[in-house]
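[Discussion] Sanity-checking designs against the backbone

I'm trying to build intuition for which residues belong where. Below is a C-alpha cell string of 191 positions. I'd appreciate it if someone posts a full sequence so I can compare it with mine line by line.
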C-alpha cells in the first residue's frame, strides 16, 4: 500500500512539473508572437542579432563577455568553447575547430521570418552559386531583403533568411572573394 502511495505521489508531481514546463513554454510563445516576433527579454548590452555585429571570431571569450555584458558558459567538452545564452531560444557559441575559432548564432526563426521573401528554386540556387554571387547580389535577388548575420570565422561570414513558411536559406560567403561558397535550404518551424 505504501509503495502505491509513493508511486501515485510521484506521478502527480511529474504531471505537475510537465504541466508547469508546458505552461511556461506557451507563455514564451505568446510573448514573442504578441510583440511582432521581436525578442523582448534583453540580456546584456544587445539582443542576439545586434550582438553578432559587435563580436568577431578572433575575440577571446573574455572580450566577448565584455562586449555582450554578461559571461558565457564554458563547455564541458572543451575549455576553448563557450556559449552565451540570451534566452531559452537564442544563443551564441564560440567554438574552436582545428584551432580555427568560429562564432555561431542560434536565432529563433520566428523573430527573423519575413513573409515577403521568395527564394529561388533549388536548381536556380545551384546555378547562382556555380556562377558566383556576392552577398549584395543575393540580397538583390531576394527582393532587397537583408540576411541576418549568424556566423563568422576568420575566412567566412554566414547569413540566414527565413520566409513566412519557416523555410530558411543559409549562405556562407568567403571573406577573400566575397562570393557565396555554400548555400542550403532547411525547414524547421521550431528553430
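Best answer:
Here's mine. Compare freely.
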Amino acid at each position: 500500500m505504501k509503495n502505491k502511495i509513493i508511486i501515485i505521489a510521484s506521478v502527480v508531481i511529474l504531471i505537475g512539473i510537465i504541466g508547469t514546463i508546458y505552461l511556461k513554454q506557451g507563455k514564451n510563445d505568446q510573448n514573442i508572437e504578441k510583440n511582432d516576433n521581436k525578442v523582448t527579454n534583453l540580456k546584456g548590452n544587445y539582443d542576439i542579432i545586434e550582438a553578432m555585429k559587435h563580436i568577431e571570431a578572433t575575440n577571446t571569450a573574455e572580450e566577448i563577455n565584455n562586449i555582450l555584458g554578461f559571461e558565457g558558459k564554458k563547455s564541458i567538452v572543451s575549455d576553448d568553447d563557450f556559449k552565451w545564452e540570451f534566452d531559452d531560444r537564442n544563443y551564441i557559441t564560440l567554438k574552436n575547430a582545428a584551432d580555427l575559432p568560429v562564432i555561431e548564432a542560434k536565432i529563433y526563426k520566428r523573430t527573423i521570418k519575413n513573409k515577403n521573401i521568395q527564394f529561388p528554386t533549388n536548381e536556380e540556387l545551384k546555378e547562382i552559386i556555380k556562377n558566383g554571387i556576392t552577398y549584395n547580389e543575393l540580397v538583390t535577388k531576394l527582393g532587397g531583403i537583408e540576411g541576418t548575420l549568424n556566423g563568422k570565422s576568420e575566412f567566412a561570414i554566414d547569413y540566414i533568411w527565413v520566409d513566412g513558411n519557416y523555410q530558411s536559406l543559409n549562405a556562407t560567403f568567403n571573406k577573400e572573394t566575397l562570393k557565396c561558397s555554400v548555400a542550403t535550404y532547411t525547414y524547421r518551424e521550431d528553430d
